[in-house]
Each structure stands twice: as structure tokens, then as C-alpha cells.
């Protein structure tokens, strides 16, 4: 399976996928291209360090979102992509991309969905005062953070935490469950029935 990873930032989740593949945990998978909407995203450097094509698509050079996503589709089309990962990609994926890759786009979110959708989920959870939070890997549909859930992992909120220490505890688990979900997908073990993801 050829994997494309969409990123906007530091790329620690991208790294967890690369490391998992390089250590042989996900046979038959390769990260074929990393695409960023941010020029200086450290994730692009991580890709280059591993000999992976690193592509910056500048959203500001397109008249609208549709044109930007046409370019995204064109680049994806060069790699025979079977799976798209959103790994800290800070844009909502548009309808045409979702339709072209239905149930083949997976996102990692740093909260236990459906709680705390959207930006700064760890801070949202911390400020709300929850005692348990975590992370969610899910298929991407037209909504924001609404698609069928593949894996979740809970972490405790501890005495003395702040939003940053909580985020760090969650991130450790992101780095575990994201590669796990990719492995399940690549092995053909995930079936989507409505909202429910069944492991076969
Ligand atoms: C992670 O917290 C992820 O859950 C969220 O954005 C952050 C990306 O971090 N979607 P990184 O770029 O993978 O280090």
C-alpha cells in the first residue's frame, strides 16, 4: 500500500509511522509522499531524511479551496495512493478528495471523540476539567472529526497537570495507536458499516 501523509507542522506522528514501517511492523506499506500546506513544516524535513518525496503545496497560490484541492488530487494521483493519513494537517479536507478516497483517509485526533472536536482539543479537555482524555484514530468523512472510529486510547488527567503535560501524555499514545490503525488498514482488517468500524 502506498501511503500519502498530509501534514502542517512538526510531524511527530508522521515519524511514528515511518519508524513503524522501517522496523518492519507494517509489511507491504510505504510512505510514498508527504505533502504539506506549510512551507517550513518540520515534517517535510523528516520525510527528506528518510528519502521520501516531500511536497509543499502553497494554498495561497490558488484562487480557492477547490483549485488547491485539485492540485492535491493531481499530486496524489502520481503515486497510486491506497491510504491517506492526516497527521497534524490543519485543514478540512474537501468533498472531492473525500469522495476520491472514500474510507481511505485516516486522521489522528488528540481527544476521545466525540468530545472536544476541532482545534486545541487537549486544552479544551483540560479546561473542561475531565479526569480522563486520550486520542482517537478515525476515518475522515465530510465533517470535522466526525468519521467512523478505528481505535481510541485513554489517558488519565493527573494532579498538577496543565494542558501541555496532558498533551504530552496523549501524544505518546497517539504514536502507538496511529501505526496500529495503519497496520490494521493495510492488512485489510477494517470494514466500515455505517458509523461502525468492524475488525475482521
Ligand atoms: C497531534 O496532536 C495530532 O493529534 C493533531 O495534531 C498534532 C500533530 O502533531 N491532529 P505532529 O505534527 O504529528 O507532531
Automatic annotation (TrEMBL):
<protein>
    <recommendedName>
        <fullName>phosphoribosylglycinamide formyltransferase 1</fullName>
        <ecNumber>2.1.2.2</ecNumber>
    </recommendedName>
</protein>
<dbReference type="GO" id="GO:0004644">
    <property type="term" value="F:phosphoribosylglycinamide formyltransferase activity"/>
</dbReference>
<comment type="similarity">
    <text>Belongs to the GART family.</text>
</comment>
<dbReference type="InterPro" id="IPR004607">
    <property type="entry name" value="GART"/>
</dbReference>
<keyword id="KW-0808">Transferase</keyword>
<dbReference type="GO" id="GO:0006189">
    <property type="term" value="P:'de novo' IMP biosynthetic process"/>
</dbReference>
<dbReference type="GO" id="GO:0005737">
    <property type="term" value="C:cytoplasm"/>
</dbReference>
<dbReference type="InterPro" id="IPR002376">
    <property type="entry name" value="Formyl_transf_N"/>
</dbReference>
<feature type="domain" description="Formyl transferase N-terminal">
    <location>
        <begin position="2"/>
        <end position="182"/>
    </location>
</feature>
<comment type="pathway">
    <text>Purine metabolism; IMP biosynthesis via de novo pathway; N(2)-formyl-N(1)-(5-phospho-D-ribosyl)glycinamide from N(1)-(5-phospho-D-ribosyl)glycinamide (10-formyl THF route): step 1/1.</text>
</comment>
<dbReference type="InterPro" id="IPR036477">
    <property type="entry name" value="Formyl_transf_N_sf"/>
</dbReference>
<dbReference type="Pfam" id="PF00551">
    <property type="entry name" value="Formyl_trans_N"/>
</dbReference>
<keyword id="KW-0658">Purine biosynthesis</keyword>
<dbReference type="InterPro" id="IPR001555">
    <property type="entry name" value="GART_AS"/>
</dbReference>
Amino acid at each position: 500500500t502506498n501511503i500519502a501523509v498530509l501534514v502542517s507542522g512538526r510531524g511527530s506522528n508522521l515519524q511514528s509511522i515511518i519508524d513503524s514501517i522501517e522496523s518492519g511492523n507494517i509489511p507491504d506499506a510505504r510512505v510514498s509522499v508527504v505533502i504539506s500546506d506549510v512551507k517550513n513544516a518540520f515534517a517535510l524535513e523528516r520525510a527528506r531524511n528518510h528519502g521520501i518525496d516531500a511536497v509543499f503545496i502553497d494554498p495561497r497560490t490558488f484562487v480557492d479551496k477547490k483549485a488547491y484541492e485539485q492540485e492535491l488530487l493531481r499530486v496524489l494521483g502520481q503515486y497510486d495512493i491506497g491510504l491517506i493519513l492526516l497527521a497534524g494537517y490543519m485543514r478540512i479536507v474537501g468533498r472531492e478528495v473525500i469522495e476520491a478516497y472514500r474510507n481511505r483517509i485516516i486522521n489522528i485526533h488528540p481527544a476521545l471523540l466525540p468530545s472536544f472536536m476541532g482545534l486545541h482539543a487537549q486544552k479544551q479537555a483540560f479546561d473542561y476539567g475531565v479526569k480522563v482524555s486520550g486520542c482517537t484514530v478515525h476515518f475522515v468523512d465530510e465533517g470535522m472529526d466526525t468519521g467512523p472510529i478505528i481505535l481510541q486510547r485513554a489517558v488519565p488527567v493527573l494532579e498538577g497537570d496543565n494542558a501541555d503535560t496532558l498533551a504530552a501524555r496523549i501524544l505518546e499514545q497517539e504514536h502507538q495507536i496511529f501505526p496500529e490503525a495503519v497496520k490494521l488498514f493495510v492488512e485489510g482488517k477494517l470494514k466500515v458499516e455505517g458509523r461502525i468500524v468492524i475488525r475482521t
